[in-house]
Write a structure and sequence with these properties.
By secondary structure, the protein is α+β, with helices and mostly antiparallel strands. It has ten helices and twelve strands. A four-stranded mixed beta sheet has the order 6-9-10-11, with helices on both faces. A three-stranded mixed beta sheet has the order 1-2-3. Strands 8-7-12 form a three-stranded antiparallel beta sheet, with no helix packed on it.
């Protein structure tokens, strides 16, 4: 059978049976929604695997539901209550596209894949930028550099408070303005997307918000950048608001000792731009 969204299945088997089993396991005696890549596959997103190729089914459940998922099932908890379900062919309840995209991005750490997924969400799914920014902040993803780069392209209205504060502090201190959320390429290959960097200096800024995570590859990535000799300035929203002088002193020190890292001619900035349809 071919459904209106382009997905195919045979009655009583294949991906539909797996999706329904995942929903039943997540729902228990209550409700559950498909989310993440599983939901995006039913929405028809081009940048995710087809429904039949999804190996792990993401399910959104209420905040207090606790269960141990079996292999092939990943549980996400709603912050308060489940959002209204969207019924997708063949009648499966799914989270809204913006929530499903946020859950999918938790396991996508590649800049180009992140940009492509969010571009599709914003441009072809008519998701308001403010709604996307709100969902990504609620999921704790807005400080991840690859996500922040896309949000930065949407303009000041979606900037997180920490970034607004950092921009103000740097401008007030008379420091050279950095480039914000611009992907850096080393010898033509993507290297990183820092929250900000000062061209031809090797100085990068990373804004960190608690709770701190050590299992998402960030620490290893920063270690790799520092092993190249790049100078990373780390700060938190608390420090920005309570100790702005310490922040500007750290930036000033890094700039004074520049350049850091590889030959500046090997580092290129390539801005992400939102495609206008």
């Amino acid at each position: 059978m071919t459904y209106a969204n382009g997905t195919r299945d045979t009655p009583g088997g294949g991906w539909e049976a797996r999706y329904r089993a995942a929903l039943e396991r997540g729902a228990g005696r209550g409700e559950a929604l498909l989310t993440g890549v599983a939901a995006l596959s039913l929405y028809g997103f081009r940048g995710v695997p087809a429904a039949a190729d999804v190996r792990v089914v993401d399910v959104l459940v209420p905040p207090r539901r606790r269960l141990t998922p079996p292999p092939g099932l990943r549980i996400h908890h709603a912050p308060r209550r489940l959002p209204p379900p969207v019924r997708l062919p063949p009648g499966l309840p799914a989270a809204p596209p913006v929530r499903a995209a946020a859950d999918a991005l938790r396991d996508v750490l590649d800049h180009d894949r992140t940009a492509a997924l969010l571009r599709e969400l914003l441009d072809t799914r008519a998701t308001p930028p403010g709604a996307a920014a709100t969902a990504l902040r609620a999921a704790g993803l807005h400080t991840r550099p690859d996500v922040a780069a896309v949000l930065a392209a949407l303009g000041p209205a979606v900037r997180p408070p920490a970034e607004v504060r950092a921009r103000t502090v740097l401008r007030t201190a008379g420091l050279p303005p950095p480039l914000w959320h611009t992907p850096l390429h080393l010898d033509g290959y993507w290297l990183t997307t820092a929250h900000a960097h000062w061209p031809r200096t090797g100085v990068l800024l990373h804004l960190t918000e608690p709770p701190f995570r050590t299992d998402d590859g960030t620490v290893e990535h920063h270690n790799a950048l520092e092993s190249l000799g790049l100078h990373l300035v780390h700060t938190t929203p608390r420090q920005l608001f309570r100790e702005p002088d310490a922040f500007t002193a750290a930036v000033r020190e890094g700039l004074a000792a520049a350049p850091h890292g590889p030959d500046p001619r090997r580092l290129r900035a390539r801005p992400w731009r939102r495609r206008v349809l």
